[in-house]
Amino acid sequence: AMTLKKVWITFLLASGLTLALQTPLPARAAPAGQSGQACLDEYQNGWDQYNQAQYQQARQTWQSALHCFQQIGLPLAEGLTHDALGAAYSRQEQYGEAITAYEQALAIHRRLGESQNQAASLFNLGLVYDIEGRAEAAADYYKQALTIYRDLGDREQQANLLRSLGSIYDDLGRELEAVQSYKQALAIFQELDSPIQAGETYLFLGLLYSDLGRDEETLESYWQAVEIFRAHSDPANEAVTLLNIGSMYDNQGLHAEAAEVYRQAQSAYQKAEDQEGEALALLNLGRVYRNWGRGD
Hints:
Layout: H1 2-15, H2 33-51, H3 55-72, H4 75-91, H5 95-112, H6 115-131, H7 135-152, H8 155-171, H9 175-191, H10 195-211, H11 215-231, H12 235-251, H13 255-271, H14 275-294
Helix pairs in contact: 1-6, 2-3, 3-4, 4-5, 4-6, 5-6, 6-7, 7-8, 8-9, 9-10, 10-11, 11-12, 12-13, 12-14, 13-14
């Protein structure tokens, strides 16, 4: 479960899901005048570099933009630039520096009463602490962000946070709270008609139920995920889920069922053009046939 979770966290860090990573600057933060336009140009250039994976260059550009915004007295733009710097540091896995940048952004957003940006900085802080394995701190930041997003009525970010909290509670051994968080996230993703996110949440629920030894609920969650991934042409997630189902059947001695599911996983990996995954599915299929032949 941890490997999938790390993929999820890394995706959130990279994707700019949180609101502070929006570009261009909102109108109320945009500078006026010639000197202000120069600051804005630097800020936008930083995003161009970031989107081309030039994170070191983006940081240097944003540091210059930050100084520029400070000089002309634009605190909202300054706060958003700290958020951008946090994103660049995160992509370079310089998490201590990312935390400092997000904390600086958060202080500014709080001073200005910018609730939406506060929530985004809190979410980003939680993600960084999460990927560092500092679960208690991550949970605290996630819960603070969740409270604000509920006040704002932002359902999508509520669902993302609830899913992240589910992973944290799982890490902390608080499995019942993890199940509850995942179910709340799932309900919102379904309400928002976000099928892939719903499918991924079913997958996470299945992994958690598996750890708890709740086999019936595990399989039910996995098959719900497979149905969604198939309906929405996501063979990569379909294949991962099928591998987990095959492993369950294998461990239960259900060789015919395991073999069939591993064949389906191989086909899904082929569609996803994932040769390593396809090889893994074939390896598992071969092991099932060997055990089956021996009557294990």
